[in-house]
Amino acid sequence: MKDTCNWDMRSDTMTKPTQEMLQAMVQAPVGDDASGEDPTVRALEERVAQLCGKPAALFCASSTMSNQLAIRTHLRDPPESLVCHLQSHIFQYESGGASLHSQAQMIPVKPNEGVNLTRGDIEKVFVSDPYGGHKAPTHLVVLENTFSGVVMPFEDMREIKEFAREKRVAVHLDGARLWNASVAAGVEIRQYADCVDSLNLCLSKSMGCPVGAMLVGSTEFIEKARHFRKVFGGGWRQAGVLAAAGLFAIDRIWPTMADTHRRTKRLADGLVALGFELALPVHTNMVLVRSPKAVINTQQALIDALRPRGVVLGNFYEGSLRIVLHHQINDRCIDIVLEEAQKIANGSEMNVVNG
Ligand SMILES: Cc1ncc(COP(=O)(O)O)c(C=O)c1O
């Protein structure tokens, strides 16, 4: 692709549609999707459902909408609760939507060990019994993969699926970046999808689309979610213009993801070799850089040094500087980050705080 130079590493949402993607959007056949008449939306929904090995999919405006529709569709009999990761997007960053839209109590859990939730973590907080009416029974488990770029082990997902089956509750996967997990772990999307009842896949993050996310599940589930999407104001019209970007991304951008992961690893290894510390293992497209012992604010020094060189950093996650790669980050950009990091490590650009 020609016009792929975009060195904004704050997030993989910072991609811009390429000329080729825009061409695909302009040329897309369209119709009224609210009446089920947009052929490009239908093609995208069928394509993603097939990729997931599930009967149906729904094109949504965002991953937040897709996750919230999933929760609303699974939880039909309040008062109910759902179990999720303490740092999950649905708990931390969806504006309390599960409480507002679905009257759900969220039970956030911190993993006992490691980064992702395991069956044991979920078992501990799961509410099987309303306890004389004092508790909200758990009817949904929500997982996130990748979690801050870290791939959830497939075996853990399988064990959680078994547990949910025993308890007869649903599992929803926020797989905003499941595209990355699949590429990094060599596990097919449909294998992950087989562990859950519904899943969200984002198109506007590492896939490089301007808009969109896919909710995937059974035919009955997606029909109900489609009805709720209308209630949420998400019944759109000639959305094929946007769906065309999604089809383009699956064919043309997803296959480049392994390169993005290789660049991410090169960046992470280079930073570690220079003495920088990482907060989480690097599996996919994210590097979380710690500031060692708060003596030297290496994070701010890196942000400041890179800005004049055209590289944008600046998002923090739990005290770590989050560097995110996407398909428009090239090798030259990684070279520049490592050059500036080297200068900081050598002390020439150090920004000393606290004396
Ligand atoms: C894991 C995860 N899920 C869901 C979302 C929500 O996506 P959006 O902001 O596009 O609604 C995000 C956004 O960053 C995310 O990282």
UniProtKB/TrEMBL annotation:
Modified residues (N6-(pyridoxal phosphate)lysine): K205
NCBIfam families, per database record: GntG_guanitoxin
EC number(s) from the headed UniProt entry: 4.1.2.48
GO cellular component: cytosol
Annotated ranges, domain Aromatic amino acid beta-eliminating lyase/threonine aldolase: 8-289
Protein name: Threonine aldolase
Keyword Lyase: yes
Enzyme class: lyase
Keywords, ordered alphabetically: Lyase, Pyridoxal phosphate
Gene Ontology MF, one: L-allo-threonine aldolase activity
Biological source species: Coemansia asiatica
Gene field: GLY1
GO biological process, one term: L-threonine catabolic process
Family classification: Belongs to the threonine aldolase family.
CC cofactor: pyridoxal 5'-phosphate
Highest taxon of the lineage: Eukaryota
